């Protein structure tokens, strides 16, 4: 960084010194009532050196007004001459590093509260950013897109017709790969001397470019979506072949169902191996075994961690488990039962209207579809409020790590979503026992519902945002003044609301008023946040159920799923690049709890398909004399045989490829060898020091007889006996 600017730089539209700083990575928006001392203190901590507890980042602001936004940028440091930050870190890694530095700002022993806000207490080791967010001093904190890199990625991602080909010269920073460990011969595992040990995993450029910009979590989702779509091609081809050849016999349906049930196990086991290869290449394979930090929102009594030595919040585990099993589990059960009652009520009302139509004619028939429409609206409404309830319950349970929090939150949501989406199909299949109605319902929900989802999640928000931007100010004024909607805009009463507005500007360098960074920050702050990949995985989970739960009834489900997923790849990419804010980078080593959810759904699919075959009238005609007990025994036998085959496949197929296992074993061996060598060196140094302290150093030119150990050159050796001693 230079201390002065030329006249050209002073007059540039980007403002003085703008050419010397990298693009904006993070924006922090303070509440207009935040005390000036609190803002200055946080900026000092952000700009301070790491050894003094700071984040060592560069801060600039727009021309200051009340309610100011600050942009935080990382500083080009520790680089060799001729290097730039773009050559070292990807956009995802820069965002992750800056956020990590901000979240790592911890309160010191002497800092009891936030300056200017005595009610905002600070404990030693507590996250400063977390306190600012919890107290409302910071109203928003978001990462900013790298427009140049995003435009290049967009043009070769969702705008491209075929995205399986390599990206080519995209201009994105190269993805840094972990250096291979050194071998005993001094080479590396990836060198020509050890080419036989080189991993055979070569992730597609398509996945690597997504990871380089959005991080591992988003890249893992798109990798799973692509892998799952490719795996569906074979069932889709069989279903299409059955439709073209007009094959509709019992044997073909039974064989197709059996094939699907075995194929789903092969699919999930092969994905585990693919996932292991990806996470090993990304350096996140053993992330679940590493020591995880506490969540920023984790509450508890501040106690020094015996492992890290830091002061961290501590909460009794028995309290978390008590809340989980005594409150959260019953609440989820009540919601599930309520969803079932709503579904049964909708079917009952529809049956009543059908009976009325038979009795009173076409007048009552007008209202036949009202229960279905009302039930669809209730399903959406229950999903919306249940998601809020599940999040609130998981927050209240107070889990220590982010992985525990995500697991329990997703588990609650998956249970309810399963009941809400599939209960009507189970009701038709096993209570009404209408195969034609079940086939029609599966086709409708798979095709129509998912097409609506594409429009709702990607195109509708984009169109509404574009139209709403034209008259946003007038609408907000009318809503704030209207007595029915005014309460929706009232802020929660906090100490920060009672603070007077600061008139003096904060002493921090400002950007030029025409700087495009300011416009970009304001535009992206108005976008909806992209919280995580939960909704995307949920879509695949529901589709997975439609394809495999009732495959014996509707073999064409896989074909429509493939067409949907091809469109899904485009719409999900579009919404990430254009509709939502830039997501925060998250390091993951797998798809998490969704792997278990898909495997559980595969086991449920065995029971549903076996039951459908045993209840089929065409199957019953093969053995008309068989009793109900015999049919139940046949169902149990078929179900046990297929589940045994699935378990055998899971046991026979390793979760990790051979090259990953060998690489991990080699790293473990080299780590043990390095530890052994280090201990040997320490032992030799220790014995050498002890010998010198007991016997002293030998004089120059002296000869020692016998086998007395002699210290020489810092080592210990035994002198051979003299010839006269024999």
Report on this structure.
This protein has about 725 residues and is mainly α. Among the domains are: about 5-145, no CATH class; about 665-725, no CATH class. The protein is built from 22 helices and ten strands. The chain has helices at about 5-10, 35-45, 90-105, 130-135, 145-155, 205-215, 215-230, 235-245, 250-280, 315-360, 360-365, 370-395, 400-430, 435-470, 470-480, 515-525, 535-550, 555-580, 595-615, 615-620, 630-650, 660-695, and strands at about 25-30, 60, 70-75, 115, 115-120, 140-145, 300-305, 310-315, 710, 715-720. The strands form four sheets. The chain has a four-stranded antiparallel beta sheet. It has a two-stranded antiparallel sheet with strand order 4-5. It has a two-stranded antiparallel sheet with strand order 7-8. A hairpin with a 2-residue loop joins strand 9 (about 710) and strand 10 (about 715-720). Helix 8 packs antiparallel against helix 9 (about 250-280), helix 12 packs antiparallel against helix 13 (about 400-430) and helix 14 (about 435-470) runs parallel beside helix 18 (about 555-580). The termini are far apart. About 25% of the residues are buried. Mean pLDDT is about 75; it is low at about 1-20, about 160-200 and about 700-725.
Biggest sheet features: 4 strands, antiparallel
Counting DSSP H or I runs of 4 or more residues, the number of helices is 22
Strand line-up in the sheet with most strands: 2-3-1-6
Q: Report the radius of gyration as a whole number of Å.
A: 32 Å
Q: Give the integer mean of the pLDDT values.
A: 75
- Portion of residues in beta strands equals 5-15%
Low-confidence stretches: 1-19, 162-202, 700-726
Please report the distance between the alpha carbons of the first and last residues.
77 Å
What global shape is seen? globular
Report the strand count: 10
Structural class: mainly alpha
Fraction of residues in helices? 55-70%
């Amino acid at each position: 960084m230079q201390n002065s600017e030329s006249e050209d730089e002073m007059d540039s539209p980007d403002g003085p010194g703008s050419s010397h700083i990298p693009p904006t990575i993070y924006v922090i928006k303070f509440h207009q009532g935040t005390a000036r001392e609190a803002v200055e203190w946080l900026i000092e901590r952000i700009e301070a050196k790491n050894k003094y507890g700071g984040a060592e980042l560069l801060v600039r602001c727009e021309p200051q007004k009340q309610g100011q936004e600050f942009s935080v940028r990382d500083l080009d440091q520790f680089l060799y001459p001729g290097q730039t930050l773009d050559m070292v870190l990807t956009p995802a890694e820069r965002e992750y590093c800056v956020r990590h530095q901000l979240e790592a700002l911890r309160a010191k022993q002497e800092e009891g509260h936030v300056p200017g806000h005595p009610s905002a207490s600070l404990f030693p080791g507590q996250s400063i950013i977390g306190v600012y967010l919890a107290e409302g001093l910071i109203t928003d904190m978001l990462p900013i897109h790298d427009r140049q890199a995003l435009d290049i990625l967009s043009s070769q991602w969702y705008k491209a017709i075929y995205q399986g080909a390599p990206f080519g010269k995209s201009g994105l920073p190269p993805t840094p790969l972990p250096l291979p460990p050194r071998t005993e011969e001094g080479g590396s595992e990836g060198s020509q001397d050890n080419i036989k040990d080189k991993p055979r995993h070569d992730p597609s450029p398509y996945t690597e470019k997504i990871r380089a910009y959005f991080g591992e979590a988003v890249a893992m989702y798109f990798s799973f979506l692509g892998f799952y779509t490719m795996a569906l091609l074979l069932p889709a081809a069989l279903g299409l072949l059955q439709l073209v050849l007009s094959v509709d016999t019992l044997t073909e349906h039974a064989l197709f169902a059996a094939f699907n049930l075995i194929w789903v196990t092969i699919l999930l086991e092969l994905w585990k191996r693919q996932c292991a290869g990806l996470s090993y290449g990304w350096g996140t394979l053993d992330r679940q075994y590493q020591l995880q930090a506490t969540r920023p929102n984790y509450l508890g009594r501040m106690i020094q961690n015996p492992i890290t030595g830091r002061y961290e919040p501590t909460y009794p585990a028995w309290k978390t488990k008590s809340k989980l099993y005594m409150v959260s589990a019953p609440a989820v059960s009540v919601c599930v039962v309520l969803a079932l009652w709503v579904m049964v009520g909708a079917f009952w009302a529809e049956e009543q209207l059908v009976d009325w139509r038979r009795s009173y004619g076409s007048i009552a028939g007008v209202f036949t579809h009202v229960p279905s429409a009302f039930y669809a609206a209730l399903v959406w409404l229950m999903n919306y409020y249940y998601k809020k309830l599940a999040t609130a319950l998981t927050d209240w349970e107070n889990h220590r790590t982010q992985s525990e929090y995500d697991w329990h939150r997703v588990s609650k949501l998956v249970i309810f979503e399963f009941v809400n989406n599939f209960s009507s199909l189970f009701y038709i299949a096993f209570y009404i026992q209408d195969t034609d109605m079940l086939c029609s319902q599966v086709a409708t929900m798979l095709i129509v519902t998912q097409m609506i989802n594409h429009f709702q999640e990607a195109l509708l928000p984009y169109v509404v945002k574009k139209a709403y931007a034209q008259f946003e100010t007038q609408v907000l004024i009318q809503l704030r003044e209207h007595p029915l909607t005014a309460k929706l805009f009232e802020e929660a009463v906090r100490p920060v609301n009672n603070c007077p507005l600061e008139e003096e500007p904060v002493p921090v360098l400002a950007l030029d008023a025409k700087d495009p960074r300011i416009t970009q920050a304001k535009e992206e702050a108005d976008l909806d946040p992209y919280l995580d990949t939960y909704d995307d995985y949920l879509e695949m989970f529901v589709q997975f159920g439609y394809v495999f739960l009732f495959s014996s009834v509707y073999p064409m489900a896989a074909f429509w799923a493939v067409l949907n997923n091809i469109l899904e790849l485009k719409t999900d990419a579009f919404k990430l690049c254009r509709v939502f804010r830039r997501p925060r980078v998250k390091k993951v080593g797998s798809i998490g709890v969704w792997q278990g959810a898909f495997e559980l759904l595969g086991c449920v699919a065995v029971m549903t398909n076996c039951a459908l075959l045993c209840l089929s009238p065409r199957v019953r005609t093969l053995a008309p004399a068989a009793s109900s007990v015999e049919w139940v025994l046949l169902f149990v036998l078929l179900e046990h045989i297929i589940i045994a085959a699935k378990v055998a496949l899971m046991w026979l197929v390793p979760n990790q490829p051979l090259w990953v296992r060998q690489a991990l074993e080699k790293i473990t061996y080299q780590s043990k060898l390095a530890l052994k060598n280090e201990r040997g060196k320490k032992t030799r140094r220790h014995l050498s020091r002890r010998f010198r302290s007991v016997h002293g150093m030998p004089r120059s030119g002296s000869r020692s007889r016998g086998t007395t150990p002699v210290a020489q050159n810092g080592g210990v050796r035994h002198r051979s006996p003299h010839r006269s001693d024999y």
